[in-house]
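Example A, followed by Example B.
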Amino acid sequence: MCYGRFFTMDRVLEIYLMQLSTPFKTPAWLIVALLIIGGCSSNNSPSEPEDLDNNDDSIEVPTRTQFLYTQTNDARENHVVGFSVNDNGDLIEIGVYETGSVGDADEGDFDSQSSVRVYEDFLIVANPGDASGESGITDGNSAITIFAINEDGSLQRVDQNLEVDGTQNADSRGVRAVSIDFHSEGETTWVAVANQGTNRVCVNPEVNGSLATCSDQFGNALGDLLADESPASDIQLFRLSESGVLTHEAEIAGFAANRGGASQVAFSPDGTKISATLLGIPHLSFPADPANQQPSRTYLWEFDKAVGTASNERFFEHPGIAGSIGFGWSPSSDFLYVSSATLDAGALEANVVALDSNDTDSVFTSDGNSRWSGAGAVPTAVRPAACWVWINEAADRVYTVGFLTNTVSTFETNGADMTHLQTVYRQDITLEDAKDLVFSADGKNAYVLGAFFSHTISTFDVNTDGTLAERTTSPLAISASRLNGVPLDPSLIAYQGLDGYPAAYVGY
């Protein structure tokens, strides 16, 4: 939950029951008949504005986003929910599709970025749950589902093992798969998967105690975790065939349980580097007490995209930063912009930090005393305010989402320089809820996922200066997770991931 507040399942149920007496207000426009949007061509060619001179080859027409997808993270039976995107950016729910595996909502809320990804005409889904008993998946591991995206936005699962009856998923090769990225080089498409393992946090520290004596969200002292150096989280590398079948290639890295789980993995845009964030062990206080938390790490490797090997491991680690979740690469592949949830008093300006990927002298020092290249602070009286990240294609705006505050913040950026421009609250949302965000391919709209309590998607228009304005018709109530208009218990459905089709520039 981006460590805004930890909710036990008892607290989740209490808030859910409160919602039953005050149901979410469903906008009247949701009661329209299901429409299939116009302008969707069979070859996914971009729509062209009427005033564009089509004879001018120097003008590149942006592809219009036609569909959005998110996963329910349902531990009983995971599903993907699809939405069509109208010409004006409005969303219409079009279908619900079984992944054939399970989510992990019953384990409580946890954080990651990019668990649902679009690659060409495929949708790749990291199912976070334990796929024990599922054919072809090692007990305890998670499953990766690949869908073929049809012309109307509907989905059809791609069989990952033709030698076994039925439609099979692929083994993530780890526990709690939470993040996916890909890079194509020639005829080869590499797919990286981050398996988080578990993420325990310091909730109730003893007076003048230490992290070892702090009680976690399950009521257990963290001493056992700190002593656990066994592999618990990892980054795995696969190849994706033209037909949508994954083949495991190698493990890029494994991380000890006492370092916290991975929350995101991403290739640099040029494919020469790969990076991953580790959560550490956050202390749920504001400001955080450095004696009661394990710092996060942002790892960086050189990636040989010809043969698929990672080398020269190094990491950014600052003692005042934990709970690092989402990050994005600058289009130049020079900078990473990383959001973090729990900061100590000396790092409160570091809601999102810019990290120069070429700087090993002060940034990627691998010594626990790294310094950020630049930082951006979100003005707020509560913690935290930056958890998920998006970077525009011009690389002059960085956007972050805050779970606790239900806010979206805009920063003006120029390399390491960051200036806060705006923080806007999602309207009609009062509980801790906001998570993933994605922008339309033409850059005109932004969509923010109400993942935990509201089960909504908020729609924003992007102003000419890059700031955001939420539409009066927003948010959209997702009917797939509602009973009589009321969102289902978050221990059943807690959405993860959001991405758009056709795949275009991706700002993370």
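Example B, a separate protein, is given below in the same form.
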Amino acid sequence: MVRRAFTLIELMVVVVIIGLLLGIAIPKYQGSRKRTFVSLMKADLHNLMSAQAAYVTSANAYSDDSTVLGFHTTRGNVLSIPEATSAGWIARVTHPGAAGVECVVFVGIVGAATTPATTESQITCTP
């Protein structure tokens, strides 16, 4: 007897194996994407620190306007600079792809809440 086709059981086994592989791969892929977005948020804050340092030398104050600094965020990142004075500044970045994560940095003396950042010039993100 010569078989020329797959049986239904063989096809079902292949579908189950593919489903198991996807069940493992998709969560790992989503975690990798989130880590990528967090890395981009940290990079934006690091670049903002450089832009603020360059700006303060000419203006003798920090700016809360990223366009004045000539700074543009990575696509998708949402930047806010709630406080910028001659004494210091604070910035926060979020990304929709990294839900629940916020990265914060502050420099100098700021009155606004700096949570989760606790050390000056150190970029800190919520878990």
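On Example B: The helical segments are 8-59, 66-69.
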